[in-house]
Each structure stands twice: as structure tokens, then as C-alpha cells.
Design brief:
Helix 6 runs antiparallel to helix 8 and helix 12 runs antiparallel to helix 13. The two termini are 44 Å apart. Strands 10-11-12-3-13-26-14 form a seven-stranded mixed β-sheet. A four-stranded antiparallel β-sheet has the order 6-7-9-8, covered by helices on one side. 25% of the residues lie in helices and 23% in strands. With 532 residues, it is an alpha+beta fold.
Length: 532
Amino acid sequence: MKRIALYFLISILVVLSACSDDNDTSTTTENGDAKKDELILSIGGEVDDGFDPTTGWGLYGSPLFQSTLLTYDQDFNVQHDLATNYEVSEDGLTYTFELRDDVLFSDGEKLTAEDVVFTYATAQESGSVLDLSNLKQVEAMEAFQVEFTLEHPDSTFITLLATTGIVPKHAYDETYNENPIGSGPYQLVQWDKGEQLIVEANPNYYGNISQFKKLTFLFYEEDAAFAAAKAGKVDVVAITPGFATQEVGGMDLVELDTIDNRGIVFPFVEEGEETEDGVPIGNDVTSDKAIRKAIDVGIDREALVEGVLNGFGTKAFSVADHLPWWNAETEIKDADIKKAKQILDDAGWEQNEEGIRVKGNLEASFDLLYPSGDDIRQSLSLAVADQLKELGIEVRTKDQNWANLENTMYSNPVMMGWGSHDPIEMYNIYSSKTRGKGFYNINYYSNPVVDKHMEEAMRSTTQEEANGHWKKAQWDGETGFSAKGDAPWVWLVNVNHIYLVNENLDIGEQRVQPHGHGWPITDFINDWKWKE
């Protein structure tokens, strides 16, 4: 096995060496130092569905090949991209955009309002992860003016406008996902599936021009990517905490804050009901608010960060920590065993001879499920089970594949993960209207006051107004879906994203990273540069 691994490593280095030598695109700085104008990156898995924004490409990172109407800066402030101006009607139903008139696709054709209309109409018909069910119509009012009309007010629609790349009506066909043409900073040159993706600068790009004329994305497994980093053959590599303690010459360790969170979703209702398919709903133990609140207060999150994530993470208290719509008042004091025990005592949960809490004939005992093959969720589940023994709560950890989880997740606590740059995620996992819909509100949480706050957030016509309502949904001083309120979830940790970066490369300021999909580190790749 060692000989096979050695041959595999040598083959990687030979390929990378050939890539570097045959495509020497070096430039020379004023002081005579040679600096290449290409980068080699291994920052995540291959995109299975290709590079079509109408089916979801670009939701988790820069679309690279396409431009969007709007974009966000590092602090999530809305910025213009293809749009020069936009207005939202007082009723929140109409969005009118003025477009730049100087934008060309990479094939030289001009981008107009017709392309915007075509993109959103195609996306709406695709049935993909892009939810455009609320879009009533999109029209080209003039050559460079487009108008969107919604069925109902939705302040989160702005996120779709900032993440959906525009595709060319004249060049879109069934092969577009593998041969994208767009108006973004780069154009696709070569895609060797399972191996690499090569892109080059789009000569027609209208925005900030990157220092780097060529990017090569390598689709390596973790061990191979780390080996390439140690050999000095790549510039940016995504790594796991297990590799992060090893020093690599010529590379800096870069740790990015995230909302790539993990937490436990607890069945909120009592047992007795079933879904239309006969799947049981509810759990008599976790439907008791005292159980959830005691766990929330008693869990030592810092111990989880250190013990499970090797310190490469942060404590999580919500699905959207430190984002503009997060309510900072909801951050609680955790690892408070005394308070946790008091909550259980006050609620009538007494310890029996075995040390397990009992209330009437009901034991404080349940299964905690996690997806098979997920090491982090498994380790978190085991650590949580161990911590809760001190509270007198018995937890049995069990792994299940996703197919089985669909039949058990409504009646058992599950170690799950979310983390989006879109506040609609709060609505999806906490709204009464989304109970039992896919993997959204699987615990059947419901609170009419929370629903009211979220509906008001959706109806808002400015992001500032919407954020105020989102914060009240978490905690309005009396109730909410946060740890201070109903605590239907117990959020545990945010998993930091870790990279090895060429010590001479400046990747600039990054946004808080989302859940681990796509290549979010590329959001501001146009600003990357060699250090002076």
C-alpha cells in the first residue's frame, strides 16, 4: 500500500510540474522578482451539475463565468453589478432595474434586458434549487431596463438577484452547463471531469481586472491536495482540521469564520401524529421545553470546538451568527450545569437510581441520529451524549443514511447543519408553513408570534427594515425561536473553513463563509493579488 501511495504522489507531482513548466505565465515586478499571473487551486469538490446559473451554479461562491444584477460586499451591503440602479415599489411587488449598456458576453455579443428575462424565465422552469415560485413575471421594458413582478412581497428576493448569473439567450442550449458563455471575469477553457478545470480571463470583462489571467482548479482528495501543497505545486488548498496542525513551507494557514453550523434539531411536538406517508411525528421527551432549554444552557460548546474541531471553529448560538439579520441578544451563557439542572428540577424532572431524569413514567432518554459517513457530526453526537450524562439525560447515538433519516427525522433529534447568506433559511426551518417540507421544518416547530415577525420581514421593502423583523423573530423580549425563546434547535458549533495559501498571495478580506458547498472563497477573487 505504501508503494502504491508513493506512485500516486509522484504522478500528482509530475502532472503539476508539467502544468507549471508548459504554461509559464510569469511576469516581473519592478524589483525584478518573477511573479506568475496564474494560480493553481484545490479548494473543494467538482461541481457535478456544471456551470449553469439557472440550475444553481453560483449560489455558494462567485459564478466566475457570469455576472449578476447585484452583488454583496464583505459586510453584506448590496452593491451594483450589471445594474446601475434599482427601485422597489411601495407594495414590495415590483423591482425595476436599469442596466449597464456596455457589457459584452465573452463571445462579443452585447448583454441586454432580454438576456435577464431569458435567464429568470429559464431558471423558473428548471425546477432546480432556485426557488422562483413567487416570481409572477419578468419583462424587458426597454433594451436596458427590466422589471420583476412578484406574487407576494419578499425581501429575500434580493438574494436571488445577487447570486443568479445572467446567461446569453443567443447562446444557451442543452450543453450550456459544460460550455458556459457569460459576462463574468473568467471564461472556461478546459474541463477534464474528475481532474481539473482551467479558466482564463474574459477579455470583455467590464469590472475590476484580476492580476491573474489563468486559474486551474484541481479536484483532488484531501490527502492528494495536501501532498501537492507540501510539494509547493499549488497556491491555495482547502484542508481539514486534521492537516491544519502540520506546518507547510511557503504556505500560510488561513482560517475563515463561517456560519457552516452544526446543531441538534429536536422534535417540538408530542408523539401521536403521522405524515401523509405514515411517518411518525413528535417525541414526548424533546417536546418538553425544559429538556431543550437545559441542554442549550448546559452544553459546553467550547469543549466541542476544542475536542471535535481541534480548535478550528467557534461556538454557535443560531443559524446565522454575526450576519446582519442575527439578533446578538440571543447569545446565551452556556456550560452552566447548575442552571441546566435547576431548569430540569423546576420542570419536575427527577433523577432515578440510575441517574436518569424521570417525569412521571417518562425517562429523559432519546436517540440522537446523524448521517452515516459524517465524521464531524458523529464526533459531535458522541461528545454531546457524554456531556448530557451529567444532566441525567440519556442519549443513544445512531448513524443512518439519508434515505432512512427521511423516515425517522420527524420523531428523533438529528445532528444537522445549515448556514446560508440568505435569511430565507430562517423562514424555511422555523415557519409553520414549512413543517414537514423536505429537510426544512422537520421538528414541526410552530409559534404564531414568530410567524408574524417573519411575515413582516418578508413584506419589508428595505433590508434594514427586514433585518429588524428577523431579529424579533429570534427574540422580541417575550418569545422567539432562539435559545432565549422556544429553543427548538440547540446550535453547537460553526466549522471554520481552513486553507493553506501561498505565503506571497493576498486573498484580501473575506465574508463569513456559508455552509460547505461550492467555492465561496472565490467571491472576491478579482481582488486577489501578490503581496508587494
